[in-house]
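Sharing a chain and its predicted structure for anyone who wants a worked example. Both blocks are below, sequence first, tokens second.
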Amino acid sequence: MLRKTHIARKWWLAGAMLVIVIVLIAGVYFSGWLDIVLGNRESLGLIEVGSPVQSVAFSPDGTLLAVGSQDGAARVWQMDDDLEPGQALVQATVFSPQGRETSYSHDVAFSPDGAALAFGLPDGTVRLWLVADGTPLLTLHGDADRICSLAFSPDGHSLAAGDWSGRIILWQVADGTVLETLEGHTDGVVGVAFSPDGITLASVSLDLTTKVWDVASTTLIHELVNASVATGVAFSPDGALLAVDQQLWSVGDWQLVREMDDVRGGMGNIAFSPDGKLLAAGNAWYEVRWWRVADGTLLHTVKDHADSVNSVAFSPDGKTLASGSLDGTVRLWRVP
């Protein structure tokens, strides 16, 4: 009887050990699977800015990442060519520490040659700096209200800025001369984008309209009425499509091509991938999402931010997506 009890105990212990091993192995695989589901495998890094982030932008060569935040500072990080998951970014530079304001301001934009950085401020000015060493170049004045959005023309000769009162100011970058002020919107112009050929300029406003302007004549050539408040506008790299939040419009005939699947409200700005195959956006639900342009399919959603995601930007090689949030951080994501 004692021998049978001893044998039973041995088998019980062996069984228990087997169960523990199975649980541990399953736990490892479950954890790995959970990481994939939550997007942790795609997370490349985290930048603690310490102030709500309004805008992010990669330099044209992908070596720098600029961040505009509510503390009135434009910061630039040097990107490592061999960026690994979790690796910290270094060489932060504060260009403009003054100014305090809330939403729809502090936009950053690199010039097409990457030599200059523009920073839109709530005092109605745009500051330009030499990226190499942070030397101030120009302060652009134009009797503007709070600057809400920025875009350089493809040739880098002019800069467009949308302001809170609904105007769009066009500056000549070389000397800061105001070339033209476009009027027609009745509320804040929260997004501006030049077409790749520089012939047209699109603007999206809180007045529920998107306007398309001929740059040479500064005349309005088309207007889209948005079904709800839209805050993002972008031309596809080939210039064939105009994205207004979740909608894609044909530039040739201004017909609606498609809407992105499963869109949630409160979107921030939007960005096409460099090859034009993906469209990315942040939203007020703390998410970063990207879709396949060809059919509007939602491909990926990540939710590691703790507040609204106001800005997204693809790296020039299309392998990394940066997202800036009101939680005071910038996150970098691997794009499959």
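Comments welcome. The chain has one helix and 27 strands.
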